[in-house]
């Protein structure tokens, strides 16, 4: 017998679809802000999967991933339930910013509080109303600012179920990373949920290749869980994920104009020439070299950098 599923005071009945509006606050103009929560439940028992994007309002790739899963009807399972929230941070999405209107990073205030600041209240509602019903979370992110992330999953090897499911997702890179306190990921972990965090591309940009990588990974996970119908094509990657257990940020030695010479995903060797930093006057021309061999996980595409800015993220142990 199927368990009762109740979200935001709505009974989610087997075999039905719902679009619930998560109302948290209004704009200064008294216009209501709604966060659509799209739920599809099968008549057959199975896992409850939560798919989220836009926890930061400028992460367009993650939003597009969830949109495509809905548009292609991949979110209609043959067993279990899929809950899709394309834009968690609608406030930030409307303004093209990473943060909530109160200036807080939503991904640093979980599990939130019932009577705290706006971002904290929102996190509390997600943590108390949705997460208790969920078994697995697929959370899609994008590199911050003008830093471009190679498509990868960030998971702790200590969380065995999550790590094993990450191998099914099979992104180009699988990075071990410990949880950061007060993040959505840490809250899910504390609740014993299986959680995959996907990173790819950069903020305020839509990248077709990154989105396709993420969508195909999500399909592989849902197919593995036996939640997909036979009409959904499943793309199989021939290569296994490159596992990264350690990495290092390379920082600018000088302020100036940055000219990267390598792309994300590329393997570089020790002392390989990866960028130039110049000044506007034709006097400075500093060659940036990789301090060790590894894979380029992130490239800063900002044309201007200050001394100490992160310009590359390179793995130290890729296998």
Keywords:
319 residues; globular; OB fold (Dihydrolipoamide Acetyltransferase, E2P); 13-stranded mixed β-sheet; 19 strands; alpha+beta; 6 helices; 20% helix; four-stranded antiparallel β-sheet; Aminopeptidase
What best-fitting shape do the alpha-carbon axes yield? Answer: globular
Instruction: Report the C-alpha radius of gyration, rounded.
Output: 21 Å
CATH class of the largest domain: Alpha Beta
Q: Assembly type of the shown chains? A: single chain
Please name the fourth-level CATH homologous superfamily of the largest domain.
Answer: Zn peptidases
SS-derived structural category: alpha+beta
> Which fold name fills CATH's third level, the topology of the largest domain?
Aminopeptidase
Low-confidence spans? none
**Average pLDDT over all residues:** 95
Alpha carbon gap, first and last residue = 45 Å
Strand content: 25-35%
CATH architecture annotation name of the largest domain: 3-Layer(aba) Sandwich
Overall number of strands: 19
**Helicity, in percent?**
10-25%
Taking the sheet with the most strands, its summary is: 13 strands, mixed
Number of H- or I-type helical stretches: 6
Q: Order of helices and strands, N to C? A: EEEEEHEHHEEHEHEHEEEEEEEEE
Instruction: List the domain count as a whole number.
Output: 2
Q: What's this model, at a glance?
A:
The protein is an alpha+beta fold and about 325 residues long.
Structure in words:
This protein is an alpha+beta fold and 319 residues long. The chain has two domains: 219 residues, Zn peptidases (Aminopeptidase, 3-Layer(aba) Sandwich), CATH 3.40.630; 70 residues, RNA polymerase II/Efflux pump adaptor protein, barrel-sandwich hybrid domain (OB fold (Dihydrolipoamide Acetyltransferase, E2P), Beta Barrel), CATH 2.40.50. The protein has six helices and 19 strands. The strands form three sheets. Strands 3, 4, 5, 6, 7, 8, 9, 10, 11, 12, 14, 17 and 19 form a 13-stranded mixed beta sheet that branches. A four-stranded antiparallel beta sheet has the order 16-15-13-18, with no helix packed on it. The longest helix is centred in the last third of the chain and has 17 residues. It is globular, with a radius of gyration of 21 Å.
């Amino acid at each position: 017998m199927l368990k009762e599923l109740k979200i935001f005071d709505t009974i989610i009945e087997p075999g039905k679809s719902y679009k619930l509006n998560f109302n948290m606050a209004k704009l200064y103009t008294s216009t209501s802000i709604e966060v659509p929560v799209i739920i599809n439940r099968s008549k057959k028992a199975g896992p409850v999967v939560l798919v989220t994007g836009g926890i930061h309002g400028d992460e367009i790739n993650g939003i597009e991933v969830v949109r495509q899963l809905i548009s292609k009807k991949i979110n209609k399972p043959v067993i279990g339930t899929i809950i899709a929230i394309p834009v968690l941070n609608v406030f930030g999405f409307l303004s093209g910013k990473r943060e909530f209107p109160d200036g807080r990073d939503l991904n640093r205030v979980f599990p939130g509080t019932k009577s705290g600041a706006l971002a904290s209240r929102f996190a509390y509602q997600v943590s108390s109303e949705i997460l208790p019903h969920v078994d697995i979370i697929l959370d899609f992110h994008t590199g911050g600012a003008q830093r471009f992330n190679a498509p990868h999953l960030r998971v702790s090897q200590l969380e065995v179920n999550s790590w094993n499911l990450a191998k099914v997702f099979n992104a180009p890179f699988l990075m071990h990373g410990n949880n950061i306190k007060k993040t959505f990921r840490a809250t899910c972990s504390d609740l014993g949920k299986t959680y995959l965090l996907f990173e790819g591309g950069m903020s305020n940009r839509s990248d077709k290749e990154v989105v396709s990588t993420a969508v195909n990974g999500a399909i592989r996970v849902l197919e593995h869980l036996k939640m997909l119908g036979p009409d959904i094509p499943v793309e199989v990657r021939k290569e296994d994920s490159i596992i990264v257990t350690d990495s290092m940020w390379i920082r600018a030695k000088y302020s100036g104009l940055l000219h990267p010479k390598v792309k994300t995903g590329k393997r570089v060797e020790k002392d390989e020439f990866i960028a130039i930093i110049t000044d506007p006057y034709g006097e400075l021309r500093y060659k940036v070299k990789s301090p060790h061999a590894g894979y380029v996980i992130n490239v800063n595409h900002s044309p201007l950098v200050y001394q100490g800015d992160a310009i590359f993220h390179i793995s130290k142990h890729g296998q």
